Amino acid sequence: MVSSWIKWHNKHCNFHSFDAYATATPNPICIGDEVTLSANILIGTTGIYTYLWTSDPAGLNSTLQTVTQNPTVTTTYFLSVSDGTNISQHNIEVIVNTPPWITPPDLIKQFVRIKQCQ
Questions:
Q1: 4: pLDDT confidence band, cut at 50, 70 and 90?
Q2: Which one, 3, 20, 60, 103, has the greatest CB density within 10 A?
Q3: Helix, strand or coil, per DSSP, at residue 21
Q4: DSSP string for residues in 58-117
Q5: Which domains does the chain have, with CATH numbers?
Q6: Which residues of 102-113 are buried (b: 16+ CB within 10 A; e: fewer)?
Q7: Does residue 101 contact residue 116 with C-beta atoms inside 8 Å?
Q8: CA 50 to chain CA centroid, nearest Å
Q9: How many CB atoms are located within 10 Å of the residue 43 CB?
Q10: What is the pLDDT of residues 73-90, one digit of tens each?
Q11: Bond prior to 26 in cis (omega within 30° of 0)
């Protein structure tokens, strides 16, 4: 009786034995800065994992657990982690702030960039 209840519970109660999540550090960033994306195991199984990172807009396609990126626009990164049996999929948005540009008087004749991040 208990065995059949456990089988029913595991099948119908959304029981997870494997899950991963993505982090982005720092976030948000300024245009020109880099962000480190990391795949983290929340609930583990075998310890042998495969990773796949992609992005929107397109540009990232990596199988590394940790990657560094220099996005020029706000970008959503997609992570898929597999333990050989289960797959965990997550996404994270990295916000890219564009600082204002100020044009000084014509005597100086150059642009000054003001970084308004962090």
A1: low
A2: 20
A3: strand
A4: S--EE--SEEEE--SS-EEEEEEEE-SS-EEEEEEEE-EEPPPEE---TTT-S-EE----
A5: 16-113 (2.60.40.10)
A6: eeeeeeeeeeee
A7: no
A8: 15
A9: 11
A10: 999 999 999 998 899 999
A11: yes
